[in-house]
Amino acid sequence: MKLKVWWLSNLIWLIIFSILSFVIFIRKVDGAGTIQTPATKLAAFIVLVIFFIFIVLIQLGLLLFVKRN
């Protein structure tokens, strides 16, 4: 049962990542009113990827903890 919850949480994170990536690449103006160029879109995407790499590392740690028990 614990692994089903782990997979479900990973699916939710994947959906969140996909939606945020889509929003970053289709928006023309960000929340501060700045016009988005390809360089600023890429910078925002890199920040998002770094955040999700951190989330993946936490999820892998949780997987190791769950599999031991």
TrEMBL record:
| InterPro entries (UniProt xref) | DUF3923 (IPR025037)
Q: Write out the entry's keywords from A to Z.
A: Membrane, Transmembrane, Transmembrane helix
* Keyword Transmembrane helix recorded: yes
Q: Which residues cross the membrane?
A: 7-26, 42-66
Q: Under which name does UniProt file this protein? A: DUF3923 family protein
This chain's source organism reads: Secundilactobacillus angelensis
